[in-house]
Structures are given as C-alpha cells and as structure tokens.
C-alpha cells in the first residue's frame, strides 16, 4: 500500500494515478514512509494560540454632561395654559393680518390685559417697525441698485419670520423671533 504525495490518500501498490486528487504517481517521487510518532505534532503546537491583547491605557474619568441652559428668548413658561388658550386666536391674527391684526387684538382684548397677547403684539410691532425702516431706507437710497435688492431680501426674511411666529403660536410657544430679538427698541 502506498500513499499519494499530494493528498496523502491510501492507494493500492499498482496505482498509477491517485483516485482522490488525480496526481500522476509514476512521475511523482514517493516519499519515504514516516513512523507514526513523527507525524504527531508536539502538544505545544496542537493547542490554539491565544491572541495577545494590549492593555488599554487608563482612562480619564468622563465629566458629567452640563445641564442644558434654558433659552433666554423662550417665554412660553411665563404664561398660563388658560391664558394661552383664551388668547390664541387673537395672537394668530396678529401675525396673519399684520397691522390690522394688532388693531383687532387691541380692541378685542383691551379689558383683558393679557400678558400673552401683549407679548405677541410687541413682537409683531417690532417686525412692522423693521419693515417700515427698511422701506424708508430703500426709498431714500432707491437710486442705487444694491439697496433695493438687499431690502427685498430683508423683507422676504421678515415675512418668513412672521410665518415662524405664526407656527410657534399654533404650537403654544412664545419665542422671540430671529433678528428681531437683537433689536433694542420696544424692550
């Protein structure tokens, strides 16, 4: 009985080709038979090698997350739910109807003296005054081409601010609008 030098399959002594892998046995030299004791690997090689892990450097303690600061421009907590509910329609009309909405809100709730409604009237007045100032500056400098273009951009921005304020009122939020909050008048 001989063995295949390629796949070590047991073959008959008269075989010319390996029936397992097809190796030509006449061309391949036949290795000498090795005793069983040499075929076995030593025990040290048989055990799987354990991966070597590097020890991680000691970690610094993670500082606690700082508490989120309240938004100084959000005045929602200053108004009671009842006050918001009673004056929500008038606050919406302030932003939807602009100057006419302010007049309606002032006439309808003049005896109520609602802080919630006063807040939204003040915000819309600041937007209207900003629009008037932009219009005056544009009228004075209309002979230039850049001022009317810039004024149109600012007026479009103020219209977007009014839409955002309208949405905030719908969500029962009282947040000072962007850009207008930085202006010092009507504080």
Question: Topology, pairings included?
Answer:
Layout: E1 2-3, E2 10-11, H1 36-39, H2 43-46, H3 81-97, H4 99-108, H5 115-140, H6 146-170
Antiparallel strand pairs: 1-2
Helix pairs in contact: 3-4, 3-5, 3-6, 4-5, 5-6
In round numbers, the mean pLDDT is 81
Overall number of domains: 2
Radius of gyration: 43 Å
Along the chain, the helix and strand elements come as EEHHHHHH
Percent in strands: under 5%
Biggest beta sheet attributes: 2 strands, antiparallel
Instruction: Give the oligomer, counting copies of the same chain as homo and different chains as hetero.
Output: single chain
> Can you tell me the residue ranges where pLDDT is under 50 for at least 5 consecutive residues?
none
Number of strands: 2
Alpha carbon gap, first and last residue = 106 Å
Indicate the structural class. Answer: mainly alpha
The percent of residues in helical segments reads 40-55%
State the helix count: 6
| Coarse morphology | elongated
Q: Order of strands across the biggest sheet?
A: 1-2
Please tell me about this protein's structure:
With 187 residues, the chain is mainly α. Helix 3 runs antiparallel to helix 4 (99-108), helix 4 runs antiparallel to helix 5 and helix 5 packs antiparallel against helix 6. The chain contains six helices and two strands, in the order E-E-H-H-H-H-H-H. It has two domains: 1-39, no CATH class; 76-182, no CATH class. Strands 1-2 form a two-stranded antiparallel ribbon. The mean pLDDT is 81. It is 46% helix and 2% strand. The relative contact order is 0.10.
């Amino acid at each position: 009985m001989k063995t295949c030098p390629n796949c070590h399959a047991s073959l008959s002594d008269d075989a010319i080709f390996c029936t397992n892998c097809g190796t030509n046995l006449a061309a391949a030299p036949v290795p000498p038979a090795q005793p069983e004791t040499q075929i076995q690997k030593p025990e040290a090689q048989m055990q799987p090698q354990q991966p070597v892990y590097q020890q991680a450097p000691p970690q610094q303690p993670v500082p606690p997350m700082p508490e989120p600061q309240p938004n100084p421009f959000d005045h929602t907590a200053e108004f009671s739910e009842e006050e918001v509910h009673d004056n929500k329609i008038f606050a919406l009309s302030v932003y939807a109807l602009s100057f006419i909405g302010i007049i309606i809100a002032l006439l309808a709730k003049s005896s109520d003296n609602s802080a919630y409604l006063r807040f939204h009237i003040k915000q819309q007045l600041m937007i209207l005054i900003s629009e008037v100032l932009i219009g005056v500056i544009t009228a004075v400098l209309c002979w230039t081409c850049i001022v009317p273009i810039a004024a149109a951009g600012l007026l479009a921005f103020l219209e977007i601010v009014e839409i955002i304020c309208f949405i905030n009122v719908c969500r029962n939020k009282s947040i000072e609008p962007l850009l207008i909050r930085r202006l010092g008048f009507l504080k």
